[in-house]
Task: inverse folding
């Protein structure tokens, strides 16, 4: 397996593609912030061009150091388009966490509190067996930390049917909003409720499979 890219600088270098055209003050290139957003999201959206038209696919992903690994099927179009070496498949990967619904007195100023990341680059298919296993373990552990060590590893047939894309975190930006509504001064006396409705992701009591042996204990990580 190739070594992961070293984590050196505290921030990613802005580029023409990672500088937003609107609300630039909400953009950040802080490495720690980017990692925290990626590590707390479950789904990414993978965008690429197919037959001259844009395609965006929701899929599983995981971060390992300075790389994203994106899950796919060996029969999927983006995986077939992404070779192991240059030029790879030009992609844009986005991740968003919603933290609140912002209700303003005017319809125009309604908004969301959110934390998002956009990654540009060339994705390449992972073919090295060791790196592929590491990536697949990371995909499982991204959802439930510790789960990859507490389940049967993929066998040869399953590995052959599963594909993984690798995307280096080089051209990256984060963008976020926090706080209450930004109502116009003239609207502050209007008789409409204004504020924030918090939004969060939570887990509930695990539901055992119907065919689970009664003696099987609930894992401590759940």
Result:
């Amino acid at each position: 397996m190739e070594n992961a890219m070293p984590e050196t600088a505290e921030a990613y270098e802005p580029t023409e593609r990672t500088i937003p055209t609107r609300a630039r003050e909400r953009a950040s290139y802080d490495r720690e912030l980017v990692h925290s957003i990626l590590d707390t999201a479950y789904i990414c959206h993978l965008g690429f061009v197919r037959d001259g038209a844009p395609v965006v696919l929701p899929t599983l992903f995981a971060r390992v150091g300075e790389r994203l690994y994106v899950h796919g099927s060996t029969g999927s179009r983006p995986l077939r388009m992404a070779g192991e070496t240059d030029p790879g498949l030009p992609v844009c990967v986005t991740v968003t966490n919603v933290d609140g619904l912002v209700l303003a007195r005017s319809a125009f100023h309604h908004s969301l509190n959110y934390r998002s990341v956009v990654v540009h680059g060339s994705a390449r298919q992972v073919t090295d067996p060791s790196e592929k296993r590491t990536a697949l373990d990371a995909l499982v552990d991204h959802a439930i930390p510790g789960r990859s060590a507490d389940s049967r590893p993929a066998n040869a047939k399953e590995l052959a049917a599963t594909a993984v894309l690798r995307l280096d975190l080089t051209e990256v930006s984060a963008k976020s909003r926090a706080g209450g509504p930004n109502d116009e001064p003239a609207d502050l006396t209007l008789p409409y409720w204004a504020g924030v409705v918090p939004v969060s992701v939570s887990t509930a009591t695990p539901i055992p499979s119907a065919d689970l042996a009664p003696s099987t204990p609930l894992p401590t990580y759940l």
Remarks:
- The mean pLDDT is 90.
